[in-house]
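Morning. Coffee machine broken again, so started the prediction first thing and wrote up yesterday's gels while waiting. Chain of 478 residues, entered below exactly as on the submission form.
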Amino acid sequence: MRSFVFAIKIAFLFAVMLAVVLGGALALFVHVFDPRVLHHLGRLQALEGADVAELVEAHIAAEDGWTAVELFENPELRRILDGEGKARGLRIFLQPVEEPIEGPNLRRSWVHRRAEGTVTVRGRRIPVQGPPVVEAHVPIHHRDRQVAWLVLRGSQHVTVVHNAFLAGLSHIGLVALAAGFLLAWTLTRPLRRMRRSMDRIADGDLEHRAPASGRDEVAAMGRSFNAMADRIQSMLTGQRELLAAVSHELRSPLARMKLSLELLRSRGGDDPRIDQVETEIDAVDALVGEILLASRFELGEVPLSLRHIDLADLCQEAWRRVAWDRLDSDAESRGISLAVETGDGAEALRADPSLASRILGNLFQNAVRYAGRGTVRVTSKRVMDPPRIEITVADDGPEGGSPLDAAQLDRLFEPFYRADPSRAVDPEGAHTGAVGLGLMVVKRAVEAHGGRIRAEPAKGGLAVTFDLPAGPRPAAVG
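Came back before lunch.
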C-alpha cells in the first residue's frame, strides 16, 4: 500500500508538470492563432457581408420611403437575410446604427484573447471582432447616409478548432498521466523489493540479502545495504559466540565453588553462610544456563530429539525440577498450587523432553515469582491441520496488581525486558533475581518446535499460550 501511494505521488507530480507544459503550449497557441484567425476569417466574412449588404441596399432602394420600423420588421427582408444566412452558414441580422458595436454577447472562454480590427471591402470600412465567434458589422447606406448595421455572426469552425485542440490536450494529458503512473510504478519496483528485503532483515532473517543487480543507484544502494547487513551479521554472530563461550567457561569455576562448599560441609561446617553462598551460586549457575541456552538458540546450535511425552507427567516433573530449588517452599508458603487439565486427545506430546521441561519450568517459575497466591493452571486442547497441542499456563497475578497493557505484552518475550522493574521483587519483598531471559528462552524453544506463543491478561494475572507437536492419540479401551 505504501508503494502504491508513493507511485501515486510521483504520477501526480508528473501530471502537474505536464499540465504546466500543456497549459503553456495552449496559451502560446491561442496567442499566435487567435489574431490570425481574426485577420483571415474576418476578411472573408467581410466580403460575404459586402455581398449581402448590396442585396439589402438594393431592396431598400426599390421600396423608397421605408421607415426604420419597416426596415427592421419587414418580413420580406427578414426572409432574404435568413436565406443568405443559411446559404453561407452564418447568422445575419440588422442592428440599429445607434447601438454601439460591442461584439457578440456570448460566453467567452478564458482561453481566447479577444481582438478587433477593421477591413475595407469595396469602399466599406467593416469592423470585425472575435474570436471564438467572428462578428462583422457592415454599414448599410440609403441615400448617402448609414441607416443600419448588417451583422454577420458565425465562423463556428473556429470554436470547433479550439475545442478539438482542447480535447486533444485532454486526451494527451490522460494518456500521459497513465503512462506516468506506469513509469512511476516501474521505477519504484526496485525500491519495493529493497523495502521487502529490509523488512525481512528487520524481522530477524539476517541471512537474507537485497537484490543488487544492475548499475543504477538502486543497485548501488542494495550493495551498500548488503555490505551493512554482512557486517551486522558478523558482529552479532561474534557477539553470540563470545557470549556462549563465556557462559560455558563460567560453568567450570561455578562447579569448583560448589565442590568446595560440599567439602566444607563434609568437614563438619555448619555455618549458615555456606547455605547462603550455595543458594547464590545456584542462582548464578541458573542464570548462566539461561544465557548459554539463549546463545545457542541464536546460533542455531540446539538440536531437537523428539520423543513421545505425557503432558501431565511433564508438568509434574517441571513443577518439581525448576531452575531454582526454593520454588517448592515459596509456592507452599504462599499457598500456590498446580492444576493440570488436559482436553480430549491433548495429553500426548511429541517434543524434545529437555526443552519441553524448560518451557514449562520457566513459565511455572515466572508464575510463582509474581503470583501472590492461588493456582497455576495448565490447560490443553488438541488442534488439527497440522496436529498440535495448544497449552495455556495462567496465574492469578500479584494481589492488587494491575494487568499488563498491550505494549508490555508485545515486548514480554524480548531478552532482558521486564514489564515493570518492581516485578523483580516477589510478594514477600525478596529480590527474585529475574533478568528477563526466561520467557525469551521459552519463545525460542517453542519456535524451535515450529510453534507459536502469545501472552494475554487473565484475571489480573498472565496467561501464556503456546503449541507443541501432538503425539498419537491413546488407543481406545475396550
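The chain has eleven helices and twelve strands. Going to sketch it on the whiteboard this afternoon.
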